[in-house]
């Protein structure tokens, strides 16, 4: 699951902060940073079959949150320029920033709220209820198998007329 390509989440955050500023000439807000970190984990799993980082993310009401990154954002340690990331991981992170960086924080919240892993971590909670539940990365691995329809902005198995296969019944 991990391997020798696993990074420290705070270094991923530092790289995102730096690259976002270089690409868009503005500072990234914490909500956007947290969502981009989640999507870097997801993209790493999708493209490499490996975790980008092993630190857990919480299923907060506004989407996935890393406590380490939250603390780092608040004490400004994410603004430090020191990180030691593998070249391919930088490629994945850059692609995530390009793919999602222009979205508003509220749009990114909405996108993460569609993620099965986040939904299941919040199962049984009210919409605005606080949560300390971790997001199960194994569910993100399972997402590799689901087809996403970008036109309709939903997974194919979420369509009302989806029949599924024999195992779904």
Description:
Pfam families: SocA_Panacea. InterPro entries: SocA_Panacea. Residues 33-119 form the Antitoxin SocA-like Panacea domain. It comes from Streptobacillus moniliformis (strain ATCC 14647 / DSM 12112 / NCTC 10651 / 9901). This is Phage-associated protein. This protein is mainly α and 169 residues long. The chain has one domain (9-168). Helices cover 47% and strands 6% of the residues. The protein is built from seven helices and four strands. It has helices spanning 9-24, 30-48, 67-74, 87-100, 105-113, 116-121, 137-143; strands spanning 58-60, 63-65, 148-149, 154-155. It has a two-stranded antiparallel ribbon. Strands 3-4 form a two-stranded antiparallel ribbon. The model has no long low-confidence stretch (mean pLDDT 87).
User: What is the strand arrangement across the widest sheet?
Assistant: 1-2
Largest sheet: 2 strands, antiparallel
Spans of 5+ residues with little confidence (pLDDT < 50)? Answer: none
What is the domain tally?
1
What integer value in Å does the Rg equal?
A: 16 Å
> Helix proportion of residues, in percent?
40-55%
Percentage of residues in strands: 5-15%
Distance between the ends: 30 Å
Class inferred from helices and paired strands: mainly alpha
- The tally of beta strands, per DSSP, is 4
What form results from the Cα inertia axes? Answer: globular
How many separate helices?
A: 7
H-E string: HHEEHHHHHEE
The pLDDT mean sits at 87
